[in-house]
Amino acid sequence: MGRGHWVGLCCLATIALTSLGCTKGEPVRFRLNMEGRDRQALEETEEGRAQLQSLVDAMTAAFGTPDEPYAFPGSGFDVEKLRLAAGPVRSIESGERGGLFRRHCVHCHGISGDGAGPTAAFLNPYPRDYRRGQFKVTSTAAGYGPTRADLVRVLEHGIPGTAMPSFALLPPDEVDALVEYVKYLSMRGQVESILYDLVVEGEEEPTAEMIQDEVNNAAEMWAMAEENILIPEPPPVTDTPELLAASIAKGQQLFLDANKGACVKCHGPTGLGDGGQVIFDVWNDQKTDDNIHLFTLPKQQLVPRNLHLGIYRFGRRPMDLYRRIYAGIKGTPMPAASATLSPEEVWHVVNFVRSIPYEPDESTPIVVEPTVAVTGR
User: Fold this and answer.
1) How many CB atoms within 10 Å of residue 80?
2) Which of these, 154, 151, 161, lies nearest to 186 by C-alpha position?
3) Per DSSP, what are the bridge partners of residue 64?
């Protein structure tokens, strides 16, 4: 992207952030999660307007505002960390630190953590919408969310191949505060989604007990992640060229086997990401031509990784690749191979995937017959 494009994006971000209330003026507010929901139809009736206002009031009572975050009992949040990350950007010259999220993150992730900041529409993939409590980059087993260490790692290393940069130059306490705030936005979104179903769809009056139950449930989900870190099984011995070559060959067969690794279906027979599958992640798969007007961002197709590039968004370490293959990539059609592969077989696939960028000519198909005929091409 040329310098002129970046200047344009920065100008657009400044204008948009002003409209979001990130300068002096109207108080900054969290935006209700109306993705896929017809807000206009609700606001046409007095009852609908009352339900939406009731939901806003309940969420404000439980989590506060973007300028004054609140830690509801049982949430486990460190309020001082939240205050360091939240609020308007404070001048460094004044000696008062704060507003870290708006300084570094809001232009992509938005005030509400909805992944629809001013520059989001220009990015592929879109910035993460935290409100589901679902993250692709985790060290945990299938079905579990990220650990705190996972969020720290993303901030410190960024996500290669995306617009998410590294913030390794930030002081550790600022990284820690941003991680706390991302978790806060995520838990807030999880609770809001449940309360929407209860208050708007179920026509219930929100109560302190109801809010407490949902906060406790969300906090428990985050706590469970810390207890379900995926520790890879020891890899097979590949300490000689012959053993490594044999492991790579086994991994290649599993990669091409549509009933075992099944990697070929999306990544293609040569690993170029050209398997012919049209796929979407959970942040896009519900968007259709009929309801797209109810979403903030256009539908965006998910592109399988071109493994020849050697760019792995979730880390280059063998352990990182093992976790991606064994547990899948949450929120995407990338399945958990633990259902069809043994730990040793997963390691063989890891060794094969790591060998792909070193193929002499990526346009030349890999000369190995698949054990099962490839379909859907």
Assistant:
1) 11
2) 151
3) 69
pLDDT at 284: 97
Alpha-carbon distance of 248 to 242, in angstroms, equals 10
Radius of gyration from C-alpha coordinates of the chain: 23
Q: What integer pLDDT is reported at residue 360 of this predicted model?
A: 64
Sign of CA dihedral 111, 123, 194, 336: negative
Distance in angstroms (rounded) separating the CA atoms of residues 83 and 88? 10
* Model pTM above 0.90: no
CA distance 49 to 41: 10
Local structure of 302: helix, strand or coil? strand
Running DSSP on this structure, what letter comes out for residue 199? I
State residue 90's pLDDT score.
83
Q: What are phi and psi of 372, to 5 degrees?
A: -130, 140
Contacts of 331 (CB under 8 A, 6+ apart): 132, 134, 135, 136, 281, 282, 283
Q: Phi/psi class of residue 144: alpha, beta or left (left: φ > 0; alpha: ψ in -120 to 50)?
A: beta
Contact residues for 355 (Cβ-Cβ < 8 A; gap 6+): 248
Beta carbons of 65 and 30 less than 8 angstroms apart: yes
- Regions of the chain with pLDDT less than 70: 1-25, 91-95, 360-377
Q: Is 334 strand, coil or helix? A: coil
Evaluate whether 332 touches 302 at the Cβ level (below 8 Å): yes
Q: What whole-number distance in Å separates Cα of residue 220 and Cα of residue 225?
A: 9
